[in-house]
Amino acid sequence: MLIYLQVIETPEDESKFTEIYEAYRGLAYHIAYARMQHEHDAQDVVHHVFMKIAENIKIVEPVSPKTKQLIVTMIEHRVIDVFRARSRHPIDSFNDEINPGFFREIEGGSLLMECIFKLPAQQRTVILLKYEHGYSLREIAKLLKISLPWAQKIDQRAKKKLEELYKEGGGNL
Amino acid sequence: MITEEMLREAAHKASEVYTAYCERDYDPENQYVFPQEFEKKIERLKHRATHPVFYKTMHRVASIILSILITGSAWITVDAEARAAVVGWVKEIYETYFVFRHDRITNTATESADYRPTWLPDGYSEFRVSATEARTVVIYANDAGEMIRFNYIHNPDETDWFIDVSQSDIKNATVNGNEADLLIVQNSDEANGIAWVSADTAFYVTGFVDENDLVRIAESVQEI
What we know:
The complex is a heterodimer. By secondary structure, chain A is mainly alpha-helical. In chain A, about 70% of the residues lie in helices and about 0% in strands. Chain A has two domains: about 10-95; about 95-175, Arc Repressor Mutant, subunit A (Orthogonal Bundle), CATH 1.10.10. Chain A has helices at about 1-5, 10-35, 40-55, 65-85, 90-95, 110-120, 120-130, 135-145, 150-170. In chain A, α2 (about 10-35) packs antiparallel against α3 (about 40-55), α2 packs across α4 (about 65-85) and α3 (about 40-55) crosses α4. Helix content of chain B is about 30%, strand content about 35%. The two termini of chain B are about 25 Å apart.
């Protein structure tokens, strides 16, 4: 069977996957290791993310800044997922909100951008995949391996939370 | 109201900024070298990238083969009377585990319902939900770090659900008129559990709570 698989390869998809892997494996590991602080755990995270890329190769762009951002978003999502699954005290032991202080000085930043960083990790991931990468909720559900109804709920909650944060931050709606 | 255009702009900037932040001390010239074993796993992914549908089919076939192997090797230990069909689900009882298996072909395109317990012991709140097309797991935790896991399978095509009962005393119970199995562990380091089937969905709750609370949680489960 494996021999059969090797014979009927479609070169375009394999080549796209290889290029993405070779372009971003180093960065993917760098980010995963920085968060996990463990070589094998970081490898597992990288493997999981490239597995999702492989499964969804048809809807992933070729190597581009956007694809790099997608890899970064998915690594971040996976790291948080692993931490949460392992920890008995996930809320105390792992803060899944990015410290917004770093981003305040960014040129071109906005209140809404800051609010996105304040979202819980899963909500932030869905917002980035939907509005930056243009994926539908069905595609997001597939990428994150969650159900479509659950992806819809996360999307709704994220938007509600963004409105609250935006108002709290002084934004006018 | 936050418009879609505002969201697109903010998400674009957020994504750009966060990627730059992650790259700030990354040196592409000095990359981590992945072990050969890892690279072999990636080679296999390349084939998956080329044949995603084929791999899904293979996964399903592998599940079925595994199911047949397990069933074939352990069938002689099964009491035929213990095979109880409930609304399409079959619970097979082995010496050290239960298997919930759906016994009929259904239309998987049907939208599945979401469920949650409407009662939990004091101090527990939801902190994680993991959902696939077939299964949902909701974990509740209290301040002491104790957890209650609420699991259900709503897609019968997801084949089998194995529940290890080797460390448990099994007691009969009823959840809103449905037969249920209480799994009470002998070891205080393990969680107690309750499993039942209702409305074409198989449920399983585990937690460091006593059997009365488990039944109360189970009976409070409602579609949301």
